[in-house]
Amino acid sequence: MFARWRARLSPAARGGLFYFGYYGAAATYMPFLSVFFARRGLSGQEIGILAAFGPLMALVAAPTLSALADRRGWRLEMLSAAMAATALSLLALLVPDSFLGLLFVVALMAIASSPVGPIADGLLARMAARRGLSYGQMRLWGSLSYALVAAAGGALWQEAGFRVVLPVAAALFLALMLVAPLLDDERPVTAAAPSSLRVVTRDSRLRIVLVATFLLGLGMGMALTFGGIYMDRLSGGQFLVGLFAGLTAFCELPTMHWSEQLIRRLSAPWTLVLAYVLQGSGYIGFLYIRQPELLLGVAVLQGLGFGLFLPTTVRLVDTLAPAEWATTFQGLLSAGVWGLAPLVAGLLGGSLYDAGGAPAVFVACVVVTAAAALLLAGAQLAGIFRRAGEPPRDSHDPPGARETGPSPA
Q1: Is residue 71's pLDDT more than 70?
Q2: pLDDT, tens digit, 9 for 90 and up, residues 194-213
Q3: Cα–Cα distance for residue pair 195/311, rounded to 1 Å
Q4: How far is residue 199's CA from residue 392's CA, in Å, rounded to a whole number?
Q5: Which of 6, 31, 69, 251 is the most buried (most CB within 10 A)?
Q6: Buried b (16+ CB within 10 A) or exposed e, 95-124
Q7: Is the pLDDT of residue 261 over 60?
């Protein structure tokens, strides 16, 4: 059955279908979990502890499980298993009434879901590179489904309640297991021993990308947490907050669609610098705009910036990664931007907010985003990324032993 569908659907259609299903399933429950916990009678501190598990497992579990999938050749198997475990965890959320019970289930769900994004990104970015496809045009289907489902999700939660919505989310993840086998898992044919992770992570280009991505993630994390509070105080309600989030997601679509063309014209590092400038401009808008309606312009800038940042970064990291470590490198990327950065952003942003209010937070967002842009621009001007299509070889690897896609740099 899977072979027949693989033959009928193009690689781009299979990638877009997976992203559409995955982010649509995530949007069913992720934006509303804090409300679910609050209605279970948890305190703010308890909700904060539960919210920390996602970033923590992105930092700890995602790289570990991604590396295991690479070493054992279990990419598709682990992807399916992770989605099944996520579905079971969502159903298990309906059972406990105590904080400790929820803590146990949320921890399991965070571990289970942590490798899904890195493994899928590693498989699909490599598939796009080998087949000459635009990764951004596949990934934009995820942004579209997240925007549509999240916009409708509030009404669904209000009308049906979590006892209906959580099983629906679980069913969507189980259905997505039928799509996972349609993805390509093409491993390089070579007699050479795989490079050690210690050797390949010595690459200065990878370290620069990971540091810059962490800095941008730090700014995004602070803005996401405290931007909503700022908008709520300006407008006196949650309507603008929801509209801002939906508009941001929709504005990701055009730049995701054109990201590959921009990479070819500008190079991947300069495309990332442009993405960072767009994000930083949005944070400057937060600093100076006092009219609530005008803040929607900030949503446009942030959506355009994120739509460039995500596919370009995934594409660049895939190009730097040897084929045998493709998923592991995406796990390292996920650990920085979705793991360490949100954890630091909560602590740093909270301290700045208490000391100087929302303006202090947005100044910090501008500073870290500018630092990320300068780091990448300096590396590109110094010629560090000129060989971005040539991942570092282990001393035992013969020249030409490793497959790589076309260089985005």
Answers
A1: yes
A2: 555 566 567 889 889 999 99
A3: 25
A4: 8
A5: 69
A6: eeeebeebbebbebbbbbbbbbbbbbbbbb
A7: yes
Structure tokens at 348: 């740093």
Distance CA 123, CA 278 (A): 28
One-letter identity of residue 3: A
The pLDDT value given to residue 198: 67
pLDDT for 189: 44
Do residues 251 and 304 lie in contact, with contact meaning Cβ atoms separated by under 8 Å? yes
pLDDT of 334 over the 80 cut:
yes
Between helix 204-235 and helix 268-288 the angle, nearest 10°, is: 20
- Cβ(184)–Cβ(11) under 8 Å? yes
Residue 291 tokens, joined: 């009219």
Comparing CA positions, the residue from 174, 37, 24, 45 lying closest to residue 106 is 37
Q: 45: burial class by Cβ within 10 Å (0-12, 13-18, 19+)?
A: exposed
DSSP-assigned states of every residue in 78-97: HHHHHHHHHHHHHHHTTS--
Encode pLDDT of 6-17 as tens digits. Answer: 667 888 888 899
